[in-house]
Amino acid sequence: MPNIKFTYFDTRGLGEPARLILHHAKVPFDDVRVTQEQWPKLKPTFKTGKIPCLEYDGHQLSESYAINRFLARKYGLAGKDEIEQALVDSIADVQKDFYYGMAPWFYNKLGFAPGDAAELREKHFVVHTANYLPIFTKFLKESGSGFLVKSGLTWADFVLTEFLFSLKKLEPEVLKDYPELQSLVDHIQQVPELKDYYKNRNWG
What we know:
By secondary structure, the protein is an alpha+beta fold. It folds into two domains: 4-76 and 193-200, Glutaredoxin; 82-189, Glutathione S-transferase Yfyf (Class Pi), Chain A, domain 2. 55% of the residues lie in helices and 9% in strands. Helix 1 packs parallel to helix 3 (64-74) and helix 1 (16-25) packs across helix 6. The protein is globular and about 45 Å long.
């Protein structure tokens, strides 16, 4: 059994997909949740000075998507073959573009960034949801599996749904015209290996 330690803040954010992969695999791991007060002292102990960080049998890995890909390949959530793995990676990268496009509005809405709220909403939230939500809907329709690719659940479903959960907290009607995406959000919470975790986790 590998020795696994995963370190991130006590929030979902960039760390939650890795936690979901590990919980889905039923692999024991040390889930270290750092407070903002603890972070300045801990920061120098990480090679890149960043978290999330995965320590796997003594090897320290940083950057959330690299961690997600590594764990997904280890535990069967990367796609069934090389072509599908590339598709999963590409969907996750599209999701990253979506996130960065939304970031100025998103962090302003949370109170972490300056700017005119109405202007940012129009320029970032309205524009990017209109651009990206149909793309993810297309992947769902083409897969026919209820998830983003044909073989079923992958880590791309985790990175997308985690961001959609956050968007729905800020804009509850964001998926009203996208029933396939709402179905994915509902469906993923019923995955047998994760149902209890979703029910009891910190949704912050």
